[in-house]
Amino acid sequence: MENYKGRILVIEDERSMREVLKILLEEEAYDVSTASDGVEGIEQLKKNGFDLVITDIKMPRADGFEVLRQAKIISPETIVLMVTAFGTTEAAIEAMKNGAYDYINKPFKIDEIRLVVKKAFEKKKLREELSLLREKFQASFRLENIIGKSPKMQDLFKLIPKVAGSSSTVLISGESGTGKELVAIALHNLSSRKNNNFVTINCATFPEGLLESEMFGHVRGAFTGAVQSKPGLFEIADGGTFFLDEIAEMPMSIQSKFLRVLENGTFRRVGGTSDITVDVRIVSATNKDLLDKVSAGAFREDLYYRLNVVPVNIPPLRERKEDIPLLIDHFLSKYSRNSLKISADALSLLINYQWKGNIRELENMMERLSLLCERELLMPEDLPVEIAQGRGDARYLPAVGPDKVDLEKIMSVIEKDYLLKALEKSNGVKTEAARLLGLTFRSFRHRLHKYGISQ
User: Fold this and answer.
1) Predicted pLDDT of residue 139
2) Same structural domain for residues 146 and 291?
3) What is the DSSP code string of 189-228?
4) Of 34, 255, 268, 333, which one's alpha carbon is 20 to 30 angstroms from that of 419?
5) For residue 2, is it within any domain?
6) 394-405 mean pLDDT
7) Rounded Cα gap, residues 25 and 256, in angstroms
8) How many domains does the chain have?
9) What pLDDT score was predicted for residue 405?
10) Sign (positive or negative) of CA dihedral 52, 57, 61, 65
């Protein structure tokens, strides 16, 4: 099938309904097999691989609940959708509790089936992508990838393996750009949870209502637009680690629900009535003083103490200057295409710069210098004027000298930098980012496409 989308097994004892579903789904380019009862369906599951199972609940020999149970044993990656004419609230709750993706009552609308199946495959794809990302994290972000030889970093290296072995909550503090997420990933990859999901969310990037839905999920009909139930990140992180960045920005209205998860491991989806239990290790991070937020009444004191069981502080780059040469060598190896080296004078200037943006600022700097420098040795004149003079934030402009300056390349680097900064400032809202730069949305979108910047 040219536009093949995936394999579906329809288990339905009513022949007419079975055939209707087969025709409908094949029209949508799915590869569809059918079974007339639960026993036949289970046998097909054992012999063939399916992405999705659509099963009636009330059937002879083996009902839909038995199909669901067997599917979780035979093929845990297969998504199961329950369909019945005998639906009750209790049956729906039981099906969802036992791992069904969704629940639809007969008679159903054709468009409803199409939408639910499409969303189910999107969920499966997301789950597979998360698995690939987890493997990537495990391969790329181990403890040895956190660079530093300073005494403060050596203390951190000793602390991380000790903390990783427990399930205690960890609060990572440090300025923006110090590498808090790298530490969180190291904690996960050195723990017994390393083969399960590492899930992350930035609490500052979501409006209040959406943040709650992202974290805890929602049931169908919980709010306008909730056309189907959706698991939250806590469910996706079950058995693994949930990293909450910028935890200080979590609204007070969500903090009490979050505290309940920390205390007893249970929560309810938005609009839900049943408790969901998860086993999740919580690691959070902040670049602000949470006690100041507690004093200001913007953060719950009891939540603070639940989060701060094991505090981990990452020092700013200006307090670990002996690590700067190591980081520079690392970033030059990462970005330079011509084995670019750095002179002693230029290195001294970079070591003595304040680096308000910490490692992130240093990495951005070395990426730009690797791109713009056309010789094999970085000299002081290649550095931004502000670094050479020890003042303010650096502008990434090479000095005009005897060598040719590629002005078009320099302007491209600066333009891309401002596009990224505007997106970061607007939390990814493109219309707001365009406004911040004084551009029309069409012009802003054209520039994103020009530099290959995706959301």
Assistant:
1) 43
2) yes
3) HTSTTTTS-EEEEETTSS-HHHHHHHHHEE-TTSSTT--S
4) 333
5) no
6) 55
7) 43
8) 4
9) 59
10) positive
What type of residue is 249? E
Tokens standing for 20?
């209707």
Are residues 59 and 161 part of one domain?
A: no
Q: What percent of the chain has pLDDT over 70?
A: 89
CA–CA dist 430, 424 (Å, integer)? 10
CB proximity list for 333: less than 8 A, separation 6 or greater: none
pLDDT of the residue at 225: 77
Q: Tell me if residue 313 falls in helix, strand or coil.
A: strand
User: Terminal CA-to-CA distance of the chain, rounded, Å?
Assistant: 32
Any idea which residue has 């302007």 for tokens? 411
Q: Which of 270, 287, 315 is the last residue of a domain?
A: 315
For 440, the token pair is 């029309």
Task: Record the tokens describing residue 15, joined without a space.
Answer: 């022949």
The answer to whether residue 1 sits within a structural domain is no
Q: At 318, give phi and psi (nearest 5°).
A: -65, -15
pLDDT band at 366 (very low <50, low <70, confident <90, very high): very high
Sign of the CA dihedral 258, 259, 265, 269? negative
Give me the CATH number covering residue 361: 1.10.8.60
Q: Are residues 182 and 111 in the same domain?
A: no
231 residue type, one letter: P
Angle (CA) 370-371-377 rounded to 5° is 40
User: Are 176 and 302 in a shared domain?
Assistant: yes
* 331 and 308 share one domain: no
Whether 95 contacts 219, CB under 8 Å: no
CA–CA separation, 134 vs 121, rounded Å? 20
Does residue 16 sit within a domain? yes
Dist CA 177 CA 393 (whole Å): 15
Kindly state the average pLDDT of the residues 152-174.
Answer: 92
Last residue of a domain, one of 99, 129, 159: 129
Report whether 49 contacts 74 (CB < 8 A): no
Say whether pLDDT at 329 is over 80: yes
Determine contact, residues 152/258, Cβ cutoff 8 Å.
no
- Listed residue (284, 218, 281, 278) closest to 250, CA to CA: 284
Structural domain including 105 reads 7-129
Max Cα distance, the chain (Å): 87
Which amino acid appears at position 41 of this protein?
G
> Do 193 and 219 reside in the same domain of the chain?
yes
439 and 391 housed in the same domain: no
